[in-house]
């Protein structure tokens, strides 16, 4: 069973903050600095697209953000996540490249400034959300993937940005409560949806599994709280 994430000096992380970086994956280079907000993203002046009936449909702030980012498909993100299968934590429950990346990020520094403690406390922390965040970073789409070390805050960010739902789409970020509730505050674990198997289960790619590594798993939908939807090309 995946471990719940504690803050360095408090029981939980409660916010997301800004960060910048460079990412290259599958020949795609991300901008050197990515505007990123983890309260609801502030929308630029309203834009719209037309449906087949010519009714204007407003774009979400994340969809507008995506126009400035590399065009990355759900398939590319899942390929990147799949390449991490087998990465394993050390005997202390940390030591992965996902931990190292998060500890070096502006996100970790600002979280420590907000919650207390020190960045080193992340070295052996539960890392399922760090894994998802790392994949978004490497793919160059962090502003529409979000990032955090705490699953509840990450899920709330998707919901606040109106990219939250109950459909198991490939590439969606899936949040679990092992007790089967639909309560975001009860989320225990996070990963990526690889496939809806059509039999009440989904195939996933997750970090920080019960084996302490990145694995492909099959999970019952009864344990799913909901899904966050990054903005993908195609």
From TrEMBL:
Q: Which residues form the signal peptide?
A: 1-35
Sorted keywords for this record are: Signal
Pinpoint the Peptidase C51 domain residues: 123-208
State if Signal is listed as a keyword: yes
**Gene3D superfamilies given for it?**
endopeptidase domain like (from Nostoc punctiforme)
> The organism sits in which domain of life?
Bacteria
User: What Pfam families has UniProt attached to this entry?
Assistant: CHAP (PF05257)
Q: Does the keyword Signal apply?
A: yes
Protein name in the entry: Peptidase C51 domain-containing protein
From which source organism is this entry? Streptosporangium becharense
Lineage of producing organism: Bacteria, Bacillati, Actinomycetota, Actinomycetes, Streptosporangiales
């Amino acid at each position: 069973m995946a471990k719940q994430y504690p803050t360095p000096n408090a029981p939980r992380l409660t916010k997301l903050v800004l960060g910048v970086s460079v990412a290259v994956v599958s020949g795609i280079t991300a901008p050197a600095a990515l505007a990123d907000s983890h309260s609801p993203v502030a929308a630029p002046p309203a834009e719209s697209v037309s449906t087949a009936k010519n009714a204007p449909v407003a774009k979400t702030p994340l969809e507008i953000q995506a126009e400035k980012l590399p065009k990355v498909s759900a398939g590319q993100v899942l390929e990147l996540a799949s390449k991490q299968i087998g990465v394993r934590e050390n005997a202390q429950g940390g030591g992965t490249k996902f931990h190292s990346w998060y500890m070096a990020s502006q996100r970790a520094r600002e979280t420590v400034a907000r919650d207390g403690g020190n960045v080193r406390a992340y070295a052996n922390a539960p890392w399922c959300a760090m894994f998802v965040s790392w994949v978004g970073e490497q793919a160059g789409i962090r502003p529409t993937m979000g990032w955090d070390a705490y699953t509840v805050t990450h899920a709330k960010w998707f919901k606040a940005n109106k990219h939250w739902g109950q459909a198991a789409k490939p590439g969606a970020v899936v949040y679990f409560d092992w007790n089967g509730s639909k309560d975001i505050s009860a989320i225990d674990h996070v990963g990526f949806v690889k496939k809806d198997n059509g039999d009440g289960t989904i195939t996933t790619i997750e970090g920080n599994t019960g084996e302490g590594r990145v694995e492909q798993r099959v999970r019952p939908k009864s344990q799913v709280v909901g899904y966050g939807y990054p903005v993908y090309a195609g």
